[in-house]
Design goal:
Helices cover about 25% and strands about 30% of the residues. It has about 230 residues and is α/β, with parallel strands linked by helices. α2 packs across α3.
Length: about 230
């Protein structure tokens, strides 16, 4: 008997008034979704009820050692070892690598990305159940100061972008994927989030503008990504 699909979403947002990732992901789900916010000391008690895990982005840096970050890394590591399918976006992408392989594989990016970027698949994506039905290149929203680098030997690179070498990756020992960008954020939401980041980080304005891709192009791949992800047992 197949296990009922029930998605655990780890909501890593710090200020829900600015960033509400669960809303973006929930619109692409047809099964039950439960969300928890570690920054509020909100954690699931019974992990056995869940079939899949999504780890969201965050305004925080993955380089931090806040108690909630360390606690969430422990949870991700536990579920990865139990072979639960896991999908991480942006901060979540970095966090799953830190949780499974170590903090030495994440860093401040020398080439952060903002706006709408082009992501090009490597040929091996055709063998990957998450990406096999997608076409290269795809265009998606980006907003990140950190990145996965260097790529650990037990991870496989599936796609790159102009300013991010490890744009989409997969753990070689389980159904665990990381996507550096935000396919779940649409054009209007992305523009609003970019403005909020500029307002909240005036000291980083020059760096943010230097990495900004201003032409809005969105391949709208989240429904296909989630359909493929939820098909993985």
């Amino acid at each position: 008997m197949k296990r009922e699909k029930r998605i655990l979403v780890i909501d890593n947002s710090v200020d829900p008034a600015v960033y509400r990732p669960v809303e973006h992901w929930r619109t692409n789900m047809t099964c039950e979704v439960e969300a928890y916010r570690p920054a509020d000391e909100d954690v699931p008690r019974d992990l056995s009820r869940f079939s899949h895990l999504i780890v969201t982005g965050s305004e925080a840096t993955v380089m931090g050692d806040d108690e909630w970050i360390l606690r969430t890394c422990d949870l991700i590591r536990e579920l990865a070892m139990e072979k639960m399918p896991i999908f991480g976006s942006c901060f979540g992408h970095q966090m799953i690598v830190r949780a499974i392989s170590g903090k030495q594989f994440v860093r401040r990016s020398p080439t952060p990305e903002f706006g709408w970027v082009e992501v090009a698949f490597r040929p091996n994506h055709l063998n990957d159940p998450l990406l096999v039905d997608l076409h290269s290149p795809l265009f998606t929203y980006a907003v990140h100061f950190d990145e996965v680098y260097p790529l650990p030997k037990d991870w496989e690179r599936l796609a790159t972008s102009k300013r991010c070498e490890n744009a989409i990756i997969k753990w070689r020992h389980g159904s665990v994927w990381g996507v550096q960008h935000h396919p779940e954020i649409g054009i209007e939401e992305g523009a609003a989030l970019y403005s909020a980041i500029l307002d909240g980080s005036p000291e980083r304005m020059e760096m943010i503008k230097a990495g900004y891709e201003s032409q809005p192009r969105d391949s709208l791949v989240t429904p296909a990504l989630m359909k493929a992800f939820l098909s993985v047992e």
